[in-house]
Structure formats: structure tokens, C-alpha cells
Amino acid sequence: MKVSLFIPCFVDQIYPQTALNMVKVLEKLGCEVSYNPNQTCCGQPAFNAGYWEEARAVGHKFLKDFSTFDYIVSPSASCTGFVRNYYSRLFDNSAVHNEVKIIKKNLLEFSEFLTEVLHTTGVGAELNLVATYHDSCAALRECGIQEGPRKLLREVKGLEIREMEDVETCCGFGGTFAVKFPAISEAMAEQKIRHATDSGASCIISTDLSCLMHLDGLIQARGLNLGTMHIADVLASGW
Q1: Beta bridge partners of 83
Q2: What are the tens digits of pLDDT across the range 12-39?
Q3: Pairing relationship of beta strands 126-134 and 107-109 according to DSSP bridges
Q4: Residue 228 backbone class (left: φ over 0; alpha: ψ -120 to 50; beta: rest)
Q5: What would the pLDDT profile of 140-161 be if each residue is shown by its tens digit?
Q6: Which of 123, 124, 163, 217 is the most exposed place for a label (fewest CB within 10 A)?
């Protein structure tokens, strides 16, 4: 099966190893993976800040870059959710209406692609760790992803997943929300970290590095003994 990678800006610039681990897993499962190095942002930051014309210009490029692929896989439910839920508003009553419909169908978050398209839960990963899973708002509310990542994690040899209290509560990042309301954002992160720690976990796993980046910043600032891992990094462990 042929797939194209959509690698979000912050993954490309800050967490490239996660993208490489995603490729590692996809290739192990028999996928032929391609990457368009000319790809850029999906337009979400500009859209959320109210700059719809700028977001539309970036979105046009996104549609062009990925127009020829049946499956587009991304390690970010946030970016996936934005394209699937908001491109129809961004390009409402436009000449690219049909292209938007196709992209919305073809773009999937990484764990979603594994469970819903490849119909797999076990990839042969092994990781001796006690962890907890964080439902990102984008994964849960915009993409409807909840049980799939847990199925994948339950198949990882040596990994124990413990559910934290208020697992569906936001971590406080929310993109520009963390910039506009830093005190509220930090308090929400504090609560999420406390619940993760109370579960007895030593690591937080999620589909979204934006959440993990936000939480890890506070973890590092507090000097806490708590790690963070993207699900692609977990699934690429031990082989």
C-alpha cells in the first residue's frame, strides 16, 4: 500500500525522530512510504489566529502537494483534525471544493491509519514501561480517536498502561491559547501532570507532540521524573 507522509511543522523542526519512527513502523507493515520535501504548513496557526486569507494561501499549497495520493498519514491528530474539519469552511463555495472532499477522506492520523485502514494492532514493539495515555482534544473531539491507540499500546510487550483521572480533560496547550492565557494553560498542564503522576506512570504517551511538548516544558521546569513519548516512538521500540 502506498502512503504519503504529512509531517507537521513542529515535528519537522523539533521532533524529526518521531517522523522517522513512523516511517519505520509503516514500512514494517508493508507500506510504500513517500515524502514530498516541498510540503509546508497546513495553515492551522494562521487560521486559529484569525488570518484566514493567509491560511487559505497555505491551504491551497497543501491541496496541491497532496492531490495525487490515496492515503496521507500524519503523526498529528491536531493537523489532521484541522484539515478534515475546517478546510470545508476555509474553502467554502470555492473552486477547490472537490479537492477538499478528497483530502478530508484520504488524510488520517498515524494510529488511526494502523487500526482503521491496515486493521492491525500488533507491530512487534517491546518497551518495559509503566505509562498513561493522554487523549488529545484534537484526536478525541475532532478525529473521534479514542480506543485505537489503546489497542495498539496494549499489544506492546512489557508496556503497562494505567488510565489517569480526567483523562479526557485538555492539557492546556491549545496552540495560541497557551500564549494568550499562560496562567490558565499552565494550571491545566499542572493538573494533567498531577493526574499522570498519581496513576503511578513514569511516562505520558499521546498521538500529539504539541500536547507532549507543552507538558514536557512544565515537567522539565519542575524537575519531575516523568517522561513523554509519541505513540510512533513507542511502536518503533524494541525491534
Answers
A1: none
A2: 999 999 999 999 999 999 999 999 999 9
A3: unpaired
A4: beta
A5: 999 999 999 999 999 999 999 9
A6: 163
Specify whether the CB–CB gap between 191 and 164 falls below 8 A. Answer: no
Condensed to tens digits (0 to 9), the pLDDT of residues 46-55 reads: 999 999 999 9
Which one-letter amino acid corresponds to residue 114?
Answer: L
Task: Write out the DSSP string of the chain.
Answer: -EEEE---HHHHHH-HHHHHHHHHHHHHTT-EEEE-TT----SHHHHHTT-HHHHHHHHHHHHHHTTT-S-EEES-HHHHHHHHHHHHHHTTTSTTHHHHHHHHHHEEEHHHIIIIIS-------EEEEEEEEE--HIIIIIS--SHHHHHHHHTSEEEEE-PPTTTTS--S-TTHHHHH-HHHHHHHHHHHHHHHHHTT-SEEEES-HHHHHHHHHHHHHHT-S-EEEEHHHHHTTT-
For each of the domains in the chain, give its residue range(s) and CATH number, in order of start.
Answer: 2-117 (3.40.50), 126-235 (3.40.50)
Report field, pTM of the whole predicted structure over 0.85 = yes
Q: What is the CA radius of gyration of the chain?
A: 17
Tell me the three-class secondary structure of 162-221, residue by residue: CCCCCCCCCCCCCCHHHHHCHHHHHHHHHHHHHHHHHCCCCEEEECCHHHHHHHHHHHHH
Place of cell 495520493: 69
Please provide the size of the chain in residues.
239
68-108 pLDDT, tens per residue? Answer: 888 999 999 999 999 999 999 999 999 999 999 999 999 99
For cell 517491546, the residue is 126
